[in-house]
Design a protein that fits this description.
- The chain is α+β, with helices and mostly antiparallel strands and 379 residues long.
- Helices cover 43% and strands 12% of the residues.
- It folds into two domains: 4-121, 2-Layer Sandwich (Phosphorylase Kinase, domain 1), CATH 3.30.200; 126-374, Aminoglycoside phosphotransferase (APH), C-terminal lobe (Aminoglycoside 3'-phosphotransferase, Chain: A, domain 2, Alpha-Beta Complex).
């Protein structure tokens, strides 16, 4: 193996971190919508791999706080696992470790306006963009539940709010109104449908924030983006072994994480499908994800947490559709796109998913009730 085309600035940036050996290869990794991500391969026996990322400073305006959160979470999880966790049993679970820079021992490097970090790669694992089986869905849920369990006693006040307003749906609605006021008149059935869809659900946007303000729900540490492909599966066993992409870790409502995970897992066609008529929320996958999640997380959930699960599932799919549509109206300034109508298509997918969730409200509520009644408290 040779470094080849990966020589140059990226390799030089990676080499400023405390890597264990010379860089052999460096190539793009993943399909994230926000950060630029690369896989770094280092010489050694065995070869070691790391993830190099340039944080999007338009999104993360204080990236040093993002890194402080990552370090705090990593230290807490490591301490919890050192103490022992009965939920793990023989299960492998890893938490990404941040490497320090050689020059100043900070967990990041700044170069030519770029803010870079290097973290450990979860070896012998894989991720998926869509859930392929009931077993996989349950593992995704268990992985998120285990992550929440391990950080459930970390005070949320100890984390910085690096994305103020992130997953606060009323804020997205306010931003949407501002963008809409300056956007050209709607053109085409897709935009007209999205406009009507948002208006019909405007009052629903504040449901979780109202529960927080009233004291029914409280802030906890959250992952912030627990979609399917951020849950790593052990290649040999198919079991969840890590959560990655931790730049969105912050104080928030765990319902944002639960809703986002279900939104991602229970849409078998994924976010990028063009077949809108076939988009649906798979309630059977929902049962598996929630079953896995509650097997790990039921020990710290309150009655109010359970009572707000359905609205979280409905709200987060609506919220993402709202964000996609807003970005479309704004000229595609936040999410990476391949074509002018890319974010519009993404919005239509999420709104169709929301409709499917709404049509199955009674079934989802019954499912939540059945799972709650059948689970013993977690450890």
């Amino acid at each position: 193996m040779t470094l080849g085309d990966a020589t140059g600035e990226l390799a030089a940036i990676a080499a400023t971190f405390e890597l264990p050996g010379p860089i052999l290869d460096l190539e793009p990794l993943g399909n994230g919508n926000v950060n630029d991500t690369y896989l770094v391969v280092c010489d050694g026996d065995p070869l070691q791999r790391f993830v190099l990322q340039r944080l999007n400073r338009t999104v993360f305006v204080q990236p040093e706080l993002v890194m402080a959160n990552m370090v705090a979470i990593a230290e807490h999880v490591e301490a919890r696992m050192t103490q022992g966790c009965a939920l793990l049993g023989e299960r492998r679970w890893e938490h990404p470790r941040v490497l320090l820079s050689r020059a100043d021992q900070r967990p990041w490097v700044e170069r030519d306006g770029g803010f870079w970090r290097l973290i450990t790669f979860i070896e012998s694992s894989q991720s998926f963009d869509v859930v392929a089986s009931a077993e996989q869905a349950r593992e995704v849920g268990f992985g998120l539940g285990l992550f929440h369990h391990l950080i459930s006693d970390l005070p949320a006040a100890g984390l910085a709010d690096t994305l103020e307003g992130f997953h606060v749906t009323p804020r997205y609605l306010e931003h949407y109104d501002g963008v809409l006021a300056n956007a050209p008149a709607a053109a085409g059935d897709g935009e007209l449908h999205c406009l009507a869809f948002v208006e019909e659900r405007r009052e629903f946007a504040s449901v979780l924030e109202a529960a927080r303000v009233s004291g029914q729900l409280r802030l906890r540490p959250i992952h912030g983006d627990p979609k399917v492909n951020n849950v790593m599966m052990e290649a040999c066993s198919g079991r969840a072994c890590a959560l990655v992409d931790l730049d969105t870790v912050k104080p928030g409502l765990i319902h944002y994480d639960i809703g986002d995970c279900l939104r991602s897992c229970c849409n078998p066609l994924g976010e990028e499908t063009a077949d809108l008529e076939a988009v649906h929320f798979d309630i059977h996958l929902c049962r598996e994800v929630l079953s896995g999640y509650l097997a790990a997380a039921s020990g710290f959930l309150t009655a109010a947490d359970y009572e707000h699960l359905y609205v979280a599932i409905r709200l987060i799919s609506f919220e993402l559709g709202l964000r996609f549509f807003t970005d479309h109206l704004a000229g595609n300034v936040y999410f990476k796109t391949d074509r002018p109508d890319h974010n519009l298509q993404r919005a239509l997918v999420q709104f169709r998913l929301t409709e499917s969730i709404e049509a199955q409200e009674d079934r989802i509520l019954d499912l939540i009730g059945d799972l709650r009644a059948g689970l013993a408290p977690g450890c």
